[in-house]
Amino acid sequence: MTIELGFAWYESSAVGTVGIVDVPGHKDFIENMLAGVGGIDAVILVIAADEGVMPQTREHLSIISLLNVSTGLVVLTKVDMVDDSDWVDLVEADVRDFLIGSPLENAPILRVSTVTGEGISELRDALDEALMPLAARLDKGKPRLAVDRVFTMTGFGTVATGTMLDGSFRLDDEVVILPSGVKSRIRGLQSHQKRESIAFPGSRTAVNLAGVDTSLVKRGNVIAAPGKYQPTRRIDAKIDVLGDAAAGLKHNQYVKVFVFTSETIGRLRLLQKQLIKPGEEGWVQIEFEDELVVAAGDRFVMRQMSPAQTIGGGVVVEPHSGTRYKLADTAIIERLERKLSPAAESGIYTYVEEHPFLTNREIQEQIPEGSSVAAEEIARFVEQGKFVKLAQSPNDEEKVITADLWQQLTRKMLEALDQFHKQFPLKNGIVSDELARKLRISKQELAVCISAWVNNRQLNESAGVLSLPSFEVRYSANQTRRIKQLYDQIQQDPFNPPGVKEAREILTDELYQSQVDQGVLIQLSGEVIIRSTEFEKMQAFVIAEISNHGLLTLAQFRDHFSTSRRVSQALLEYLDRKGITIREGDGRRLK
Length: 591
Description:
Helix content: 25-40%
Strand content: 25-35%
Structural class: alpha+beta
């Protein structure tokens, strides 16, 4: 009697190498059986002709349905044990009735004897016919292997086996064993006792791990590429309760959860109502006692704690669920429904909607669809105007956001700037950090948006200050008079202007800051200001004089402009801070 998982393979002339996982059939070993069926593409449901459909057969068929395995065939074995052919006909008819409504409803039923060889040739042909339409597993660039066996080989060390999922392993790849986080390297790869340099998605694979003791790896662990997966203790999922389940599932009920080769206890938090009855489906959060490694789209099976029997299963929609949700939150349910849409585009749209400002590459690394499918869908959404691509500069990777979010951000930006200009009519505009806070996006994300808004002529940007293109500072008659009063006074001795304090008294603090923001006045120090026209002349003289003579002293500068030491020192130190000059002894040279 099969108690543990068994593994074999055969060579098909039609489809190549076919890996086989033999799982226990006895009802006492259902949980061992579950460790072997997570990664299969097709099933052979074996029923003894001398016994017919057994209770465990019904549970096995339910598990196949919950895992969404729709390809397969049925084998009536031990036909040599039945002398009466009419009996076999009755058993087959009973099996056909039993299969109604299941994924194997229309599957071939073959009569086989391993003793006499009856039906073996037909079984091979039927397998080929069933497997040929199946598409190759997608390489999503996120390789993982759900470990089902671990052992030591003399001269090699630790070997773990499983079915490759979602990507490929290569010799010498760095890997991580999850959920523990132990790091290792692939010393060797085998598939069906053949050494390989690459293990492809869907293949039965043995991985020889470097520097890892067998005690650090066990069934249920996942061997993965570093950084591609993170363990989780809470997921969002949609579940189905079997129609023949003894009872429904209640809020906060504990169940055993089986995902690929892993098993743990989970607490169900129902999201729509307090009870999901037999034959019904519903949305849940599942909180696990142990960390698991799962991805969106992974299917799982649930069993009652006691009595031990399969009660339902489901599909992972969000592998890293956030905070607990409130009961009957329609917005949450709608978001989860969009994620579960069978169309790849809906999954991609929802992911971009929830994770804006990622590049194509970053999106392809995270979503459950294949990279090529993702790239095509993103391009199509851009063409349809549902996605917008943004880049801070032509050489940067473009970021992807939804058109809806782009419209929202643009509207909020225009509203924020309009409000700012009305509130502060004498300021040139809002600083970028403040706008980022108002829009609730990061500085990096805002920088990407600013580039697009400037290109679209929706925004002006100067030295980190942002304004609407239609905005310009306008002064009242009183403010204009004050400005004229200050500049008339400056004009009397341009290189010896009034100090900061006096200028503020003439203009008022707000008007003074506006003139500085406009660049008309330049504040050289806490006490000294200069008009931009005089500053440009002074700066030009400094550069020319040093270029011709190599060094310029403060006294030379002061004498040339007939100005005070206070103004001279303030201007030269200002040029030092700007990186134009550098002090050397009593003079300055060009930096």
